[in-house]
Amino acid sequence: MFRRIKKSVKSRARFGRLATPHGALATPFFMPVATRGSLKSLDAQGTRDARTEIVLSNTYHLLNRPGYALLEKCGGLHAFMGWNGPILTDSGGYQVFSLARHRKIAASSVSFKDPQTGKTVILTPYNVLKMQRAIGSDIMMVLDVCPPYPSEKEVIQEAIRTTTAWAKSSIMAYRKLGLYRRKERPLLFAITQGGVYDDLRAQHAQTLAKMPFDGYAIGGLAVGEPREKMYHILTNVVQLLPEDKPRYLMGVGKPQDIMRAVQEGVDMFDCVIPTREARHGRIYVFRKRERITATSAEWYETYAIRHARHQKRLVPIDPTCGCFTCGTTTIAYMHHLFRVHDPLAERLATIHNIYFYNELMRLIRRAIRTNDL
Ligand SMILES: [Zn+2]
User: What is the pLDDT of residue 114?
Assistant: First the structure.
């Protein structure tokens, strides 16, 4: 399902192709986040106008609302949100460990009180995959334990033990749910943990690499540790993951961080930055499109469109950008929409920012093919 087409001679960066039931993707690629089944403020047309290749949605939030029964009844999230491209769904593990205070981890499940509804929820490797089957996910993530930073070594060790046991249960659950038998089966990804401990990271990556997963995520990074620590871990972990499987760095999304991770051999990214910042009126623009590099951030800039200096600028955000927003509006108009709190402002800014990220990934893929990255 994953094919490496070209490896850069300059770095460990790879250009490839990943096939999913809803179409093939050129790698490396970026996934904007549709937590509850929408890229906030965008309908399906807007999602396509942003040249979105794949969206990430959240199993746990969709399990809460609209719920399993409705998603299954309507034939999954693709039909529900009107999107026919690929969808990756996370397992809910991260939400459990970031949102819930009173969680109880047992050998085969995690139970906790939902902070919003107050209801007790039990997640198991089986039921999170069953939910992802109802969603119709193209890339499914296994349930994992994602400890916060900083955590004692013993805590991380315990998290690894549980995550490994759950990874094994997930493979069995995938079979039991009949997913292997499907002609175009969804992909199943494992999640490696290990905090900032080199030995634990290596141990967990090697253990999971022996199991028959379609891809491997690097979890538990970008959770507050220093950036250099993150890169150090990344360099060591990526080399231990199978060369012939896609690698996904979860939650990392600053443009220069994406570039650096690509150079380490990462193929997939997701982050809320382009959508969240768009809603706050922060716009991403290339300064030197031909000189993208991981060592500096000089080739792009961000600015607050609400600022008074943009009031009379009757030019597109970026005249060289191919997005719907830049093709039909001006900075002055965008500034005006944000100032009068028109919801159209968020929609147009979101389209542009996601397009910026997709353009960045296109430039990255091109640079790998020409050995410039
Ligand atoms: Zn644009």
Answer: 84
Is the domain spanning 2-272 CATH 3.20.20.105? The answer is yes
Both tokens of 155, joined, read: 């805590």
* Ligand 1 centroid distance, CA of 49 (Å): 10
If you measure from the C-alpha of residue 368 to the centroid of ligand 1, how many angstroms do you get, rounded to a whole number? 24
Beta strand 215-218 with 29-32: parallel, antiparallel or unpaired?
A: unpaired
The length of the chain in residues reads 373
Annotated catalytic residues are 90, 270
Q: Are 65 and 37 contacting, i.e. CB atoms less than 8 angstroms apart? A: no
Radius of gyration of the chain (CA): 20
Q: What is the CB neighbour count within 10 angstroms for residue 3?
A: 11
Tell me the pTM: 0.97
Q: What confidence tens digit (pLDDT) does each residue in 2-11 have?
A: 999 999 999 9
- What is the spatial distance between Cα 305 and Cα 1, in angstroms, rounded to a whole number? 42
Question: Sheet containing 110-113: which strands, arranged edge to edge?
Answer: 103-105, 110-113, 120-123
In the reported structure, the alpha carbon of residue 308 is separated from the centroid of ligand 1 by a whole-number distance in angstroms of 21
Residue 280 has pLDDT above 80, yes or no: yes
In angstroms, rounded to a whole number, what is the distance separating the alpha carbons of residues 310 and 125?
50
Tokens of residue 117, six digits: 């509804």
Residues of the chain with CATH 3.20.20.105: 2-272
Note residues around ion ligand 1 (Cβ under 5 angstroms). Answer: 321, 323, 325-326, 352
Taking only the tens place, the pLDDT of each residue in 354-367 is: 999 999 999 999 99
CA of 20 to the centre of ligand 1 (A): 28
